[in-house]
Write a structure and sequence with these properties.
By secondary structure, this protein is of the alpha/beta class. The chain contains 5 helices and 5 strands. Bound molecules: ligand CA2.
């Protein structure tokens, strides 16, 4: 896989509420606005974005599991609460053999102790947390730099 890249952006449970509830915690930017911003960055970088949200663990697992066969080059994932609970999602991340970047709006390490454990991060290339909606943007930029490096060093498959 070489440019133009295809990047799958997946957000998990309750993130459809962004901008409508709990603005003190998660800000006032909606998920649609985050996706629009990613589309603009992607358009400048020969990249196609497919952005999705689901409240169902199985959807996230299926989308990530099928990402390679749908010719995605990488995945940006905010697993929401499943970050801290889902071995099944970790298994899907590991099995997809694509670079996955974990994203959080908040900084889970600065919150309740149970949020300090991320199952999903163990399968990820990297993690961006605490920058609000900019976390998604930084993750996309990091993933694209990583993919370019892979191509230049001849490590990229396809
Ligand atoms: O900071 C993040 O992005 C989180 O993934 C958000 C999750 C939380 O469980 C993680 O620890 C950190 C919660 C997503 C819930 O999203 C809402 C958005 C607006 C209003 C209510 C919930």
């Amino acid at each position: 896989m070489s440019p133009p890249w295809r990047v799958l952006v997946v957000s998990g449970p309750n993130l459809q509420l962004l901008g409508q509830r709990e603005p003190a915690l998660y800000g006032t930017t909606t998920l649609a606005e985050i996706h629009a911003r990613l589309q603009r960055i992607a358009a400048e970088a020969q990249t196609e974005i497919d952005a999705r949200q689901s409240n169902h663990e199985g959807d996230l697992i299926t989308w990530i599991g099928e990402a390679a066969q749908h010719r995605f080059s990488g995945v940006i994932l905010n697993p929401g609460g499943y970050t801290h609970t889902s071995v099944a999602l970790l298994d899907a991340i590991r099995a997809c053999h694509l670079p996955v970047v974990e994203v959080h709006l908040s900084n889970p390490d600065a919150r309740e102790p149970f949020r300090r454990r991320s199952y999903t991060a163990r399968g990820c290339l990297g993690r961006v947390a605490g920058f609000g909606p900019y976390s998604y943007e930084l993750a996309l930029r990091g993933l694209l730099l990583h993919l370019s490096d892979e191509i230049q060093s001849g490590r990229h498959e396809g």
